[in-house]
Amino acid sequence: MEVPGSSKKMIATQAEMVEARVPLGYRDQCAHLLIPLNKCRQSEFYLPWKCENERHTYEKCEYELVMERMLQMQKIREEQKQKQQQKQGIPLIPNTANA
């Protein structure tokens, strides 16, 4: 399944996420990594030193998604800034060399 505006694809299906009881807020492109992480957590009684590899891969995936969204937002802001500068035309007060 293709997600608009993202380079990552949805790997986990809706049925898999429902079966694994993944909360709605966590059903993103990294949900396929959250399902085995939660299974490991339950089998290891949520001990913090267990399932470190699964947790690291899931958190890395989430970090990459956040960074991707930040870059997209930065591009949108730059485009809006350029549009505003084009609308203003010639400034009434010229910019000085040191300002």
UniProtKB/TrEMBL annotation:
Keyword Nucleotide-binding set for record: no
Region of interest (Disordered), ranges: 76-99
Annotated membrane topology: Peripheral membrane protein
InterPro entries: NDUB7 (IPR008698)
UniProt keyword annotations, A-Z: Disulfide bond, Electron transport, Membrane, Mitochondrion, Mitochondrion inner membrane, Respiratory chain, Transport
Keyword flag Electron transport: yes
Subcellular location: Mitochondrion inner membrane; Mitochondrion intermembrane space
Gene Ontology CC entries for this record: mitochondrial inner membrane; mitochondrial intermembrane space
Name of the featured protein: NADH dehydrogenase [ubiquinone] 1 beta subcomplex subunit 7
Species this chain originates from: Nepenthes gracilis (Slender pitcher plant)
